[in-house]
Amino acid sequence: MTTSLNLDSTKLNKHWKANLSLTISPRPNKSVLSKCHHYGPLRVQRPFYPESDLCPHLYILHPPGGFVAGDDISISVHALSGAQCLLTTPAAGKFYGAKNRTESQYQKTTLNIDSNASIEWLPQETIVFDSAKANNQCNINVQKSSTLFYWETFCLGRLKSGETFSSGFINQNIQIYCADKLIHIEKNQLNALSDIYKSPAGFNNQPVFGSMISFSAAYLLKENIKLIELLEKELFDLSEIAKTDEQPFKIALTQKNELLIARFLGSNAAKAQQLYKFIWQRLRPIAKNVPACPPRIWNT
After folding, report:
1. Can you list the positions of beta strands (E) in the chain?
2. DSSP string computed for 34-47
3. What are the CA-CA distances from residue 240 to residues 35, 173, 248, 279 (Å)?
4. How far is residue 25 CA from its own chain's centroid?
5. Alpha-carbon span 69 to 230, nearest angstrom
6. What is the residue-averaged pLDDT of the chain?
7. Would you kindly state where each structural domain of the chain is located, as residue ranges?
8. Are the C-beta atoms of residues 100 and 45 closer than 8 Å to each other?
């Protein structure tokens, strides 16, 4: 099945343009999906409330299962003041190979988080097939009292099938604004043949990388800074221990005022996701004053 999809992306002229726009609104003691507009093959399942009525869990569905050459997909989520939501995906995303095609593949995500609102964007990993021409852009707008959890993991090539990432590229662009002021920008322009991919000072030929970003004013409180420093040391120790593993990895946590940024580099996407979940479980009680509640779909 995987092979046929890859061939489709090189031989067919069909491609998808799709968008999904969601608005989360507050109600008395509840957050609800108040607006849902979609075009093309993008859907969202009905909200689940596994932890409380205050934070619905939403599953983003993309029936084609991945992006072929020429695909242009846009997702927008707006949490109005006082509303909360958690979004995830039921399976890994895919940028399929695009040999002999000139068109690129695009995914754009926009998260708007109003005052005292919260969005948790926690998708499964994204697999970038050999010869893909992938572009992944995320624009995030927060206010001083907003809460954000966001992560993305990219796996270059189909590691379990023995496919390496020997051609193609992925461009990743993350921009975060607070009250219309740019506070963080992250750009990765990674070509399979570039020196930065091969260099020990760059990606060191490691096929899995990603970032986890969280924003909360609670991270500036003195008592929480000590907890964050402890978490930073734990992650450093895990990286040191992993140096002797068959699949070594690096993960590091950086604080920039209200922002916490964790970066992963290694060869195992499952390990990256596991570490992000570990960080999320430690930080969510600090940022939202509630324990982490993993979406049920993660257990399937």
Report:
1. 17-27, 30-39, 43-44, 57-61, 72-79, 84-88, 93-95, 105-113, 118-121, 126-128, 133-142, 147-156, 169-178, 181-191, 208-215, 250-256, 259-266
2. EEEEEESS-EEPPP
3. 47, 29, 9, 17
4. 23
5. 44
6. 91
7. 2-292
8. no
- The answer to whether residues 138 and 104 touch, using CB atoms and an 8 Å cutoff, is no
How far apart are alpha carbons 216 and 96 in whole angstroms? 35
- The token pair at 174 is 């993350």
Token pair recorded at residue 260: 């916490």
pLDDT in tens, 52-110: 899 999 999 998 888 998 999 999 999 999 999 999 999 999 999 988 788 899 999 99
Q: Residues 80, 114: contact at Cβ < 8 Å?
A: yes
Q: Are 231 and 287 in contact (CB under 8 A)?
A: no
Q: How far apart are CA 114 and CA 83, in angstroms?
A: 8
With contact defined as beta carbons under 8 Å apart, do 259 and 215 qualify? yes
Residue with tokens 């461009």: 171
pLDDT of residue 32 exceeding 50, the answer is yes
- What's the pLDDT at 204? 86
For residue 66, give the nearest of 144, 20, 129, 130 by alpha carbon.
129
pTM above 0.90, yes or no: yes
The H-or-E segment that residue 229 falls in is helix 222-242
| Cβ atoms of 181 and 145 closer than 8 Å | no
Long-range residue pairs from 34-42, CB within 8 A, at least 24 positions apart, any chain: 34/80, 40/16, 40/73, 41/16, 42/18, 42/73, 42/75
Q: Which residues partner with 119 through β-bridges?
A: 85, 148
AA identity, residue 246: E
Residue-level length of the chain: 300
